[in-house]
């Protein structure tokens, strides 16, 4: 493992599989009465959030605390227009406090990259979502969830549907799922696919109905209503008709196919309530898995070379 | 009493070695084995002599952002880069949209004395793109403005652009357009390509530049006026300008050194030192710009020297300012990309960095041949030298060079402004 987790593309297949198997071990903690391990006792992890994200912050906080790390939550809200303290000064402050790892969520693409490489700090940096760039731990928890339901992901077909253009989740998933051998199809109206997406090594489609019957996984992305005002699509109703996942479309899925969503969902927009609450939906489980995967990431980045739980390890290299 | 200088054995425009005698601000004799009593000898052995360089596109930041650059420091950088004249862009604070502001900038340039400063006048009041600034007053002022530009912003309103093109005909002015369709580039951060999609940085599509250039060429033709296109950055733009020229229309264009060398791959670092407007483009665009500059489609190299204080570059890409330094490295970049590649000879460099820009700016005292009777604006350049760019060595108040640590060919040894050295032995005189 590298020192930082900035992009899902930085992970080799071995790295990714190590995180998934470690997460599997750690997930079993959730079923125990005492959910805490001493693995990171005395280590300090800072959750540095320049953008609100209660669910991601809580997930990282729970992960760090279950590993007995000390957690500092640092909310430094500010937009590019009303800048508060600079990223540099914040980084220097955290460095002075002796943070071992910084989990950073930022509105600017590349901010975690800067934090890791500008020489301001020696901490490990975990990207918890940067602008419209990446969200690697989300991709890891998504892969983990797929892996638990489908086993090996080689040759599995994953449809990622919705606002790919503005989605850091889609970028990280496309990178990681390729590494793990899955076949990814990005499905969106042409306006919501990034320019140059042909170079990503994934399939693209404008036709959801054509993609669904073959998919093993359908991942729906959030689509903000406001995109309508910038002419990405004409109306919410038209978007839902063409790209929303409803009961009728769900009926065309294979029996084993699972439905995912990184949250927060906009019910009635990209996904209907009957789909979100159906047996195929693993949306709530994604949240549980998020804690386990983030525990695995923090554990491995902060020097855990030995298996986190089992004393009778199969060997650590 | 001005000193007489005898430059010995310099290769004029890279040709055979000759001596150049400089007296009272003029070149009085050019030839082999000259002598003059009491003249200060400047050894030109192995150096290329070019007419003093003229920049059509410089941001000197004064008035308003004296923390980034002043007329004094910016013109020092210019002299060190071999320039004897720069055009100071209008996007200062206050904007150079009145005779008062352009005269102030012009006067500051004269007082500093490192290089002639020709202020560019804003096309519209406050660069707001709403109504014309008093172009005539600026033209008639002591600063004698001939180049008008809202650079930094595009005159995107077609009617306003048409009127500006028409209006400047009264005093032989030119409108220098910053070609950027604003709606297509809202919050744009880098070249729109595969990389912008991957990096999650909002794209600045080539079409946003090309669409404006095409429109402006047609407007200039329609009203029979003079258009200059600032910082052309795409292959498509080169084609459009080539097409306009083939029609015989009065369109000129500039390319910036950084667009001749660097590509959008630099954004992979997320280091905003590489953030510039228009953005660094693809390798194919770089090739097309070089070819366009070589065949004369692109008339001039202009630096778009854009100083910014450290904190505006030491931050997130999205929060950072656009722009990079250029004056002190321009000639080296042109050597590396155009001369050392065999695309241009030194006469071609002189034309694109001195003669043509002076012509476009209607400067009578610059861009003249190195011949007897001409003003002694001369740069002596050691094309055989190499140097590693050290940002702390710049004369500019800012440090935002994208070439830090890079080894570049060539070194400006001396610059003469009307017979007076502004730079000698590579240092400010």
UniProtKB/TrEMBL annotation, chain A:
Keyword Transferase on entry = yes
- Annotated Gene Ontology cellular component terms: cytosol
Q: Where does L-aspartate bind?
A: 83, 168, 222
Matching InterPro entries, A to Z?
A: Asp/Orn_carbamoyltranf_P-bd, Asp/Orn_carbamoylTrfase, Asp/Orn_carbamoylTrfase_sf, Asp_carbamoyltransf, Asp_carbamoyltransf_Asp/Orn-bd
Catalyzed reactions: carbamoyl phosphate + L-aspartate = N-carbamoyl-L-aspartate + phosphate + H(+)
Q: In which pathway does it act?
A: Pyrimidine metabolism; UMP biosynthesis via de novo pathway; (S)-dihydroorotate from bicarbonate: step 2/3
A Pfam family it matches: OTCace
* Residues reported to bind carbamoyl phosphate: 55-56, 105, 135, 138, 263-264
Superkingdom assignment? Bacteria
Which Gene Ontology terms cover its molecular function?
amino acid binding; aspartate carbamoyltransferase activity
Q: Which residues form the Aspartate/ornithine carbamoyltransferase carbamoyl-P binding domain?
A: 3-147
Q: Where is the Aspartate/ornithine carbamoyltransferase Asp/Orn-binding domain?
A: 155-301
Enzyme class, top EC level, equals: transferase
Q: Which GO terms describe its biological process?
A: 'de novo' pyrimidine nucleobase biosynthetic process; 'de novo' UMP biosynthetic process; amino acid metabolic process
Spell out the SUPFAM superfamilies in the cross-references.
Aspartate/ornithine carbamoyltransferase
Could you tell me the keywords of this UniProt record?
Pyrimidine biosynthesis, Transferase
EC number of the protein: 2.1.3.2
Q: Which family does it belong to?
A: Belongs to the aspartate/ornithine carbamoyltransferase superfamily. ATCase family.
Q: What task does this protein carry out?
A: Catalyzes the condensation of carbamoyl phosphate and aspartate to form carbamoyl aspartate and inorganic phosphate, the committed step in the de novo pyrimidine nucleotide biosynthesis pathway.
Query: Record's HAMAP family?
Result: Asp_carb_tr (MF_00001)
Which proteins does it associate with, and in what oligomeric form? Heterododecamer (2C3:3R2) of six catalytic PyrB chains organized as two trimers (C3), and six regulatory PyrI chains organized as three dimers (R2).
What is the name of this protein? Aspartate carbamoyltransferase
What is the native source organism of this protein?
Answer: Nocardioides iriomotensis
Automatic annotation (TrEMBL), chain B:
Where is the Dihydroorotase catalytic domain positioned along the sequence? 48-235
Its needed co-factors are:
Zn(2+)
**What is the E.C. number?**
3.5.2.3
Q: Which residues bind substrate?
A: 59-61, 91, 277, 308, 322-323
Q: One Pfam family name from the record?
A: DHOase
Q: Name one GO cellular component term.
A: cytoplasm
* Hydrolase recorded as keyword: yes
| Gene3D superfamilies assigned | Metal-dependent hydrolases, Urease, subunit C, domain 1
- Would I find Transport among this entry's keywords? no
Any Gene Ontology biological process: purine nucleobase catabolic process
Name the pathway it acts in.
Pyrimidine metabolism; UMP biosynthesis via de novo pathway; (S)-dihydroorotate from bicarbonate: step 3/3
A Gene Ontology molecular function term of the record: allantoinase activity
What note does UniProt attach to the cofactor annotation?
A: Binds 2 Zn(2+) ions per subunit.
Q: Which UniProt keywords apply?
A: Hydrolase, Metal-binding, Pyrimidine biosynthesis, Zinc
Which reaction equation describes what this protein catalyses?
Answer: (S)-dihydroorotate + H2O = N-carbamoyl-L-aspartate + H(+)
Q: Which residues bind Zn(2+) 1?
A: 57, 59, 151, 304
Q: Which residues form the active site?
A: 304
Positions binding Zn(2+) 2 in this chain are 151, 178, 231
Q: Which PANTHER family match?
A: ALLANTOINASE
Query: What does the function comment of this entry state?
Result: Catalyzes the reversible cyclization of carbamoyl aspartate to dihydroorotate.
Similarity remark:
Belongs to the metallo-dependent hydrolases superfamily. DHOase family. Class I DHOase subfamily.
NCBIfam families noted in UniProt: PRK09357.1-1, pyrC_multi
What protein is this chain from? Dihydroorotase
Source organism: Nocardioides iriomotensis
Query: What is the phylogenetic placement of the source species in the record?
Result: Bacteria, Bacillati, Actinomycetota, Actinomycetes, Propionibacteriales
């Amino acid at each position: 493992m590298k020192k930082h987790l900035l992009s899902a593309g930085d992970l080799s297949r071995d790295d990714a599989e190590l995180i998934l198997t470690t997460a599997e071990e750690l997930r079993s903690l959730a079923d125990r009465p005492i959910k805490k391990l001493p693995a990171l006792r005395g280590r300090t992890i800072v959750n540095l959030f320049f953008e609100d994200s209660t669910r991601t912050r809580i997930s990282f906080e729970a992960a760090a605390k279950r590993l007995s790390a000390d957690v500092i939550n640092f909310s430094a809200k500010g937009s590019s227009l009303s800048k508060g303290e600079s990223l540099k000064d914040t980084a220097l402050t955290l460095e002075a406090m002796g943070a071992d790892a910084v989990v950073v969520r930022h509105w600017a693409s590349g901010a975690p990259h800067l934090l890791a490489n500008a020489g301001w700090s020696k901490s490990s940096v975990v990207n918890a979502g940067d602008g419209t760039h990446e969200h690697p731990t989300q991709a890891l928890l998504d892969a983990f969830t797929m892996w638990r339901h489908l086993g090996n992901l080689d040759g599995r077909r994953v449809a990622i549907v919705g606002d790919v253009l503005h989605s850091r989740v889609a970028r990280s998933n496309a990178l990681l799922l390729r590494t793990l051998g899955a076949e990814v199809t990005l499905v969106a109206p042409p306006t919501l696919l990034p320019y140059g997406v042909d170079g990503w090594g994934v399939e693209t489609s404008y036709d959801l109905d054509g993609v669904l019957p073959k998919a093993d996984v359908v991942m729906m992305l959030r689509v903000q209503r406001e995109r309508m005002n910038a002419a990405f699509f004409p109306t919410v109703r038209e978007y839902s008709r063409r790209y929303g996942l409803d009961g009728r479309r769900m009926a065309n899925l294979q029996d084993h196919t699972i439905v995912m969503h990184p949250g927060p969902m906009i019910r009635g927009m990209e996904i209907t309530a009957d789909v979100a609450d159906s047996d195929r939906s693993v949306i709530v489980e994604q949240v549980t898995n998020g804690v386990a995967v983030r525990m695995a990431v923090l554990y491995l980045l902060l020097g855990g070379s030995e298996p986190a739980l089992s004393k009778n390890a199969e060997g650590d290299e | 009493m001005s000193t007489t200088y005898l430059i010995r054995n310099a290769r004029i425009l890279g040709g055979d070695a000759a001596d150049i005698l400089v007296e009272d601000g003029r070149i009085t004799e050019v030839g082999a084995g000259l002598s003059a009593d009491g003249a200060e000898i400047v050894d030109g052995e192995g150096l290329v002599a070019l007419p003093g360089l003229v920049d059509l596109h410089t941001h000197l930041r004064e008035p308003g952002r004296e923390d980034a650059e002043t007329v004094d420091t910016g013109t020092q950088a210019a002299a060190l880069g071999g320039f004897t004249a720069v055009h100071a862009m209008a996007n200062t604070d206050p904007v150079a949209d009145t005779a008062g502001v352009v005269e102030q900038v012009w006067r500051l340039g004269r007082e500093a004395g490192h290089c002639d400063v020709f202020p560019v006048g804003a096309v519209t009041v406050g660069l707001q793109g709403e109504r014309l600034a008093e172009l005539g007053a600026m033209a008639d002022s002591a600063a004698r403005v001939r180049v008008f530009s809202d650079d930094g912003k595009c005159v995107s309103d077609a009617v306003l652009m048409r009127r500006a093109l028409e209006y400047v005909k009264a005093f032989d002015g030119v409108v220098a357009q910053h070609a950027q369709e604003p709606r297509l580039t809202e919050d744009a951060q880098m070249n729109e390509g595969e990389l912008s999609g991957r990096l999650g940085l909002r794209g600045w599509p080539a079409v946003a530049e090309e669409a404006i250039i095409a429109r402006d060429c047609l407007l200039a033709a329609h009203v029979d006026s003079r258009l200059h296109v600032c910082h052309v950055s795409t292959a498509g733009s080169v084609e459009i300008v080539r097409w306009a020229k083939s029609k015989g229309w009065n369109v000129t264009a500039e390319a910036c050194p950084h667009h001749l060398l660097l590509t959008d791959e630099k954004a992979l670092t997320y280091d905003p030192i590489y953030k510039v407007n228009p953005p660094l483009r693809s390798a194919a665009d770089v090739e097309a710009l070089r070819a366009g500059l070589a065949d004369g489609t692109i008339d001039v190299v202009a630096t778009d020297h854009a100083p910014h204080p450290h904190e505006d570059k030491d931050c997130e890409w999205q929060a950072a300012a656009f722009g990079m330094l250029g004056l002190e490295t321009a000639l080296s970049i042109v050597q590396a990309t155009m001369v050392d590649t065999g695309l241009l000879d030194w006469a071609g460099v002189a034309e694109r960095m001195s003669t043509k820009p002076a012509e476009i700016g209607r400067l009578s005292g610059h861009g003249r041949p190195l011949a007897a009777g001409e003003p002694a604006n001369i740069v002596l350049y050691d094309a055989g030298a190499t140097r590693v760019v050290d940002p702390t060595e710049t004369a500019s108040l800012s440090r935002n060079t994208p070439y830090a640590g890079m080894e570049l060919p060539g070194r400006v040894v001396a610059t003469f402004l009307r017979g007076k050295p502004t730079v000698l032995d590579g240092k400010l005189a």
